[in-house]
Amino acid sequence: MASMFRSEEMCLAQLFLQVEAAYCCVAELGELGLVQFRDLNVNVNSFQRKFVNEVRRCESLERILRFLENEMGSDIVIFKPEKYPESPLPREMIDLETVLEKLEDELREANQNQQTLKQNFLELTELKHLLKKTQDFFETETNLSDDFFSEDTSGLLELRSTSAGAAAKLGFIAGVIKRERMVTFDRLLWRACRGNIYLRYTEMDASLEDPITKEQMKKNVFIIFYQGEQLKQKIKKICDGFRATVYTCPESAAERREMAEGVNARIEDLNMVITQTESHRQRLLRKAAANLWTWGIKVKKIKAIYHILNCCNIDVTQQCIIAEIWFPVADTNRINRALHQGMERSGSAISPILTVIQSKMAPPTFNRTNKFTAGFQNIVDAYGVGSYREMNPAPYTIITFPFLFAVMFGDCGHGAVMLAFALWMVTNEKTLLAQKSTNEIWNTFFGGRYLILLMGIFSIYTGFIYNDCFSKSFNIFGSSWHTRPMFRNGTWNLHVLEENNVLQLDPAVPGVYSGNPYPFGIDPIWNIAANKLTFLNSYKMKMSVILGITQMVFGVILSLFNHIYFKKTINIILQFIPEMIFILCLFGYLVVMIIFKWCQYDVQRSQQAPSILIHFISMFLFSYNDPTNRPLYAHQEEIQSFLVIFALIAVPWMLLFKPFILRANHQKAQRMLQSLAISEDPAGDTEVGIIESNHTKKAGQEDHSGSHGGHDDHDEESSGETKKNGGLRK
Amino acid sequence: MASLLCCGPKLAACGIVLSAWGVIMLILLGIFFNVHSAVLIEDVPYTEEDFKDGPDRIYRLYEQVSYNCFIAAGLYVLLGAFAFCQVRLNKRKEYMVH
Fold first, then answer.
1. Residue A210's CB: how many other CB atoms inside 10 A?
2. What is the average pLDDT value for chain A, to the nearest integer?
3. For residues B27 and B73, is the Cβ–Cβ distance under 8 A?
4. Which residues make beta-bridge pairs with A82?
5. How far apart are CA A195 and CA A181, in angstroms?
6. What residues of B are in contact with residue A473 (Cβ under 8 Å)?
7. What is the pLDDT of residue A380?
8. Across the interface, do A473 and B21 touch by the CB < 8 Å criterion?
9. Residue A474: closest CA among chain B residues belongs to which residue?
10. Residue A412 with chain B: CB contacts under 8 Å
11. Residue A524 in contact with residue A475, Cβ under 8 Å?
């Protein structure tokens, strides 16, 4: 029977599926989500399993999808529909492969084209700038030849005049180089050509986009004048080394102008082509974006199904796939129906066979949750998942966790704000779920919306108890403290008022405290009292101690239910009873002392009220001679001594006896097994001997008495672990 | 006319939440100050001499603070209206782009 108080009953079954039907049946079981497949091929390498090729194909599809997503970048919004697509049939994988591979090829081609076009565009732009700049160079050059041959150089004029003719034979190389390389280029040219070349360069104003890396580059235009063939070769090699692009530039100005016009026209054409290519690429990506998410989910589902099929065995005749599954007994019908649906979907005639097998393995713990309890179950599981069929603490956590939060929070104003936030999240649940946000912080808050709702409700309640709303108190019923009696019956007068900054109301004076406590919550007068915290701290601490110890005792009592269910009387005697004795004798007594002191002392005797903390400490030190701390009640010394000794006895009772008893039981079981084996078959003796020596070597104790085979290693606990568990429970 | 849309969707939603809290809390505070609640004495700007000759001067101070609260609540109403308009403009813009 399914109940929230324990984890559900699980059973292990073997599933026999026909090979054709296997895929669809696993798909249906996956959609149902109630089944855990055991991995039967643990020892097999992932590359040697049966369906490794299909998994590989799925992974290459995922690679293509990632590539597409990358290309879309942040510009194109990927459409996410509300519902997840159904698990696809195997033949859909082939369709997906063709579509995705075609898309990938088209996109790569488009990218390649775009790159080539951009490269051409870059070259043409550089050429355009080059032509413009060389115009300036040549003009200054012709101007230079006039004043170059004047004054200082006139002595060499005879030689110069002949070389002026030869000057017409000056060749030049024009090109473009990156700005950062310009200086080294200049220096190297100077050194290599021994100063026989003339280099001029200017910066290019516009920065260009590198087609491959897509970043902006700054370049310089240069022109080198040289004479002779050897220099030309040298210069060409150096330009290649510095990766400067050289362009052929015509000598005459008219030709240059013509070339510039041609280049401009080509640049315009190229621009048009580039924009068209870009829009074609965007169109491709947008079309893909409409389906990208659905494809991704389908590929994930196919991959998951093949992973599960890899975990199953194939029987000898190659006709049948064998799987082992854990599932809750209560869901047997749903699983049978899902298997039947899978069989119909695949079109096979043979129905899958489900046979329950017995096993000594520990079944998985399954707690059925709905959207409300899921949050609390998650918190409990974060501390540790319970063993199979253990009491589930989650139903109690639904109340205790938010309530203890509220005890610490205790403000009805802020609690109301928290409640409003939680109500907004809960009422808009469906729309908020559909958004499928990836923001982790938001998902944490949204996942805990029911927790926050309960925390808000309880905080409003404790806020009223603490009489605290945005740190101010409400005065609904009228305070029970009055100041006028202090003047009438007490010692106050106007003189006292002027002398002192702070005055204390004395409840011993009749009339100051009306005798009827504030009906609900803390009296509002405390909010304006200067010693508010002295009173509130003591009150809140004692209340928290009482609540905490009550919850701890409740937890120990819950463990009693576990012991009864698993029929382990040894645990009741050796664990539950000493635990209860320890906690009740010490901390239960503390709670009793607190309540006793609250009831026993009123304002007349409050001066002599003893400190509970000091009593508690001296209880352990057995020191009863302190005159400043009177006893709470008569015979306190005897009762306390008895309680402390009783609690101290409970400690070795809890910790020491259980390991020895478990070891004795284990050895008895081994001896029984040995005698059984000897009486049956002498050949099995050696095997049993080996098992026994292994176990005694470990000095391990097992939790259950009785014989076990070799496959129960998870159930064995060493004595150290039993002691550790006992100590933790304390 | 220049576009009236100057806040994004999240800023506008933040503005609405702040205005809602501000309006409700300031109106309640204003009422409590008007009723001369004793618990709020620390927030009234009194001086030593206001305590002479009966509580009337303290009461006038209380009422002054309460009017301040109401004015602040009114400012938050304006801010809330502005944020609400921004939210509506954002929604309209969302529909047009698609």
1. 13
2. 85
3. yes
4. none
5. 19
6. 39
7. 92
8. no
9. B39
10. none
11. yes
**Closest to A198 in 3D by CA, of A146, A244, A137, A156:** A137
Q: List Cβ neighbours of A410 (8 Å cut-off, separation of 6 or more).
A: A459, A462, A463, A465, A466, A468
Distance CA A237, CA A216 (A): 26
- Chain A residue numbers with beta carbons less than 8 Å from the beta carbon of B21 are 417
pLDDT tens string A630-668 = 888 889 999 999 999 999 999 999 999 999 999 999 999
Please state, as a whole number, how many other Cβ atoms lie within 10 Å of the Cβ of residue A574: 21
Pairing label, strands A245-247, A171-178: antiparallel
A442 vs B contacts (CB less than 8 Å):
none
Flag if A528 and B21 touch (Cβ within 8 Å): no
Q: Give the gap in angstroms from C-alpha B39 to the nearest C-alpha of chain A.
A: 6
Q: Residue A226: beta bridge partners? A: A171
3-state secondary structure of A199: strand
* Residue contact B39–A417, C-beta within 8 A: no
A156 versus A356: which is more confidently predicted?
A356
- Decide: A29 and A354 in contact? Cβ < 8 Å: no
Instruction: Report yes or no on whether pTM surpasses 0.90.
Output: no
Question: What distance in Å separates the CA atoms of residue A148 and residue A89, rounded to the nearest whole number?
Answer: 85
Closest to A528 (Cβ–Cβ): which among B21, B25, B41?
B41
Query: Which amino acid is residue A105, in one-letter code?
Result: D
Q: B38, A417: Cβ pair inside 8 Å?
A: no
Output the pLDDT for position A706: 35
Q: Which residues of A touch B37 (CB under 8 A)?
A: 475
B39 interfacial to chain A (CB closer than 8 Å): yes
Cβ pairs A/B, distance under 8 A: 13
SS3 A252: coil
Number of C-beta neighbours around residue A541 at 10 A = 12
Q: Scanning every residue of chain A, which has its alpha carbon at the shortest distance from the alpha carbon of B17?
A: A421
Name the nearest CA neighbour of B83 among B34, B17, B12.
B12
pLDDT in tens, A456-476: 999 999 999 999 999 999 988
Q: Using DSSP, state whether A514 is helix, strand or coil.
A: coil
**Type of residue numbered B83:** A
Please report the pLDDT score of residue A413 as a whole number. Answer: 94
> Is residue A327 classed as helix, strand or coil in its secondary structure?
strand
- Between chains, do B21 and A417 touch, taking CB under 8 Å as contact? yes
Nearest-CA distance from A423 to chain B in Å? 14
Tell me the C-alpha distance between A386 and A365, whole Å.
7
The DSSP 8-state label assigned to residue A683 in this structure reads G
Alpha helices in A312-353 (DSSP H): 332-346
Instruction: Find which of A469, A479, A481, A528 to mutate to test the B interface (most B CBs within 10 Å of its CB).
Output: A528
Q: Any idea which residue has 């101290």 for tokens? A: A648
| 8-state DSSP, A201 | E
Average pLDDT over residues A510-522: 90
- Which residues fall within 8 angstroms of residue A433, CB to CB, at 6 or more apart? none
Partners of B25 on chain A (C-beta within 8 Å) are: 470
- Are the beta carbons of A136 and A202 closer than 8 angstroms? yes
CB A411 within 8 A of CB A469: yes
Taking the Cβ of residue B35 and every Cβ of chain A, the question of whether any pair is shorter than 8 Å is answered with no
CB A107 within 8 A of CB A283: no
3-state SS record for B46-58: CCHHHHCCCCHHH
Question: How far away is chain B from the Cα of A441, in angstroms, using its nearest Cα?
Answer: 16
Nearest-CA residue of chain B relative to A526? B39
